[in-house]
Amino acid sequence: MNWQKASLRDALGRSLVAIGERDDKVLVVNADLRNSVKTTYFMERFPDRTIEVGIAEQNMIGVAAGLAMMGFIPFAVTFARFASKRAADQISMSVDYCRTNVRIIGAYAGIFTGMQGVSQQMIDDTAAMRAMPNMTVIDTADAREIAAVIDYAVGHEGPLYIRVGRDDWPVVFDGAYVFRLGKGHWLRQGHDVALISSGVLLPYALEAAEVLRGEGIEAGVVNMPTVKPIDADLIADAANRIGAIVAIENHNVQAGFGSAIAEVVVARAPCPMEFIGIQNEYSQSAPNDDLAEHHRLTPPHIAAAARRAIARKRG
Fold first, then answer.
1. Alpha carbon 106 to chain centroid, angstroms
2. pLDDT of residue 314
3. Is residue 188 scored above 90 in pLDDT?
4. What angle do CA 203, 209, 210 make, to 5 degrees?
5. 82, 93, 161, 242: which one has the fewest Cβ atoms less than 10 Å from its Cβ?
């Protein structure tokens, strides 16, 4: 497929400006990475509504929580690694436990972080965040979905964590795309296997479906940006009606999106499942295409997982 591409971090920066234009209660709290995550756009447009705490992610969360309690709409923006690890206790107590209306943006999520290596990659933030009782977790697939999710986030009630990538990435959706919390949607129908994706691997899932179609296998493809609360009804329907699922994520396969799907499948409609993601290992510093191939995330590997699931379904 010939994909048009757009920068994910640019989409984040420009989306924050767009909601800032609409609501003067929107604030951005940075932790020294505004150039990297493109919140410089917001700072240039709204310098009086931008707060820079420096290399102090824990303080960033505390400041954001206090602002939310005062009636503001704060977006705390930093790398996913620092948000989910360095500030985990503050998020747990000041945001999640208190049900504070803080929007946490975990940028540079997953392994595609511009060859910056393990120290900047984040492969278990979904696991950490979805384990918090009151946290909503969203993983974005492309620039248009980022814009739609940020637009939604302004009115969200309660703790919210949003995963956002970094680099130029295929644009899957058109300008009519509308985000609905807790809902996945079918991008293509199929009766042999369901490829259910959350986040930036969605174009790989669509390409894998084309590969499988060439073999006479009809694969349905689902985009499911909300990891928590997950669309249990769609998952149960896919498990019952199709009977084979491949979960696809730019995250560790343990305790992430695939695990969330498996929890639904086990409880409501047991069926064969395969898991595409980081296989419980740290990544490396390399170009995105090389990392995707090394971790077996590419369309041929997704297609192979689909064949395995189908074979198990057929016994």
1. 9
2. 86
3. yes
4. 95
5. 93
- 226 SS3 class: strand
Domain CATH for 275: 3.40.50.920
**Hey, what amino acid is at 195?**
L
Total number of domains constituting the chain: 2
> What's the angle, vertex CA 145, arms to CA 100 and CA 233, rounded to 5?
75
Summarised one tens digit per residue, pLDDT across range 92-110 is 999 999 999 999 999 999 9
Q: 140 near 165, Cβ under 8 Å?
A: yes
Buried b (16+ CB within 10 A) or exposed e, 162-172: bbbbbbbbbbb
Q: What pairs with residue 103 in β-bridges? A: 75, 160
- 284 pLDDT above the threshold of 90: yes
What mean pLDDT do residues 80-89 have? 96
Q: Residue 6 has which token pair? A: 């757009």
Backbone φ and ψ of 98, nearest 5°:
-85, 0
- Phi then psi for residue 278, to 5 deg, are -75, 125
Residue range 3-20: average pLDDT? 97
